[in-house]
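Hello support,

Our group uses your service weekly, and this is the first time we've seen a run hang past the timeout. The protein is GyrI-like domain-containing protein. I'm not sure whether the cause is the sequence or the server load. Input pasted verbatim:
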Amino acid sequence: MPTHAEAARSAPPVMKTRLPTIAIGLAASLACGASVLAQPAQAPAPAPSQAPAPAPAPSPAAPPAGTPSPAQSTPLPTTTAPGPGPGPNQAPTPPAPEKALPPATPVPPAAGRVPLVANPGDPSDVDEVTLPAKPAAILSGSAKWDQAVPSLKDAVAKVEAALAQAGIKATGKPLSVFTRTDDDGFQYEVMVPVEAAPNPRPAGLPDDLRFGATPSGKALRFTHKGPYEGIDQTYETVTAYLDAKGIIVQDAFVEEYLTPLASPSDEALEVNIYALPK
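Update from on-call engineer: The timeout came from a worker crash unrelated to the input. Re-ran successfully.
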């Protein structure tokens, strides 16, 4: 079986009317007479000691047409309707916080689930462990090496969502068993350990989802911490160790994801790699 390290790359004018001169004069005389008759009697001048009344403040100039009002310049948000104002002895009520939107594709978290081996591994050492056979939901698939993380991540999410919808309790960390590899890609089985395999099979589960057991027996555990895109270096360590010890292993490496597969460059990723001797 090629190793994981070997396979990875990879307006109109106004008219003026001339009036006869005599008509203009007559109109002016009448206008002057009307002005004199309509003029009111003058008020007596104020006493010398009396200060003149202050002139009224000039009225503000009207804004030019088309100028928006302050409310139009800074409109209130329209997401909520205005409510009644506070009472005379009440403090203003603060606005209610916005509700957070739910995630687009919620997936049950794997936090709190136990790995196949309870005690943690050491990235600088190799552990000889015994893997227990646990009931698991299994989904098979294949992918190219450059799409390893998105493919495995989607497969795990599909299994998790199906189990949650059927009410089946998941109890362990997700696994990937690499059943076949070459230079172009790989075939895999994604497994999620469950409390018990359902019997009878619940309706509504995907047709390609089946139930079985996780790999079991004696195994060598190697621990990888860091981005998945650097996991080939860990597999090189695995290969060197097996060659130095003369250990022949089964043609199926097992990856157990202690932290979620977020992205190929996730620095917080932790993976247990199990090699099962023949």
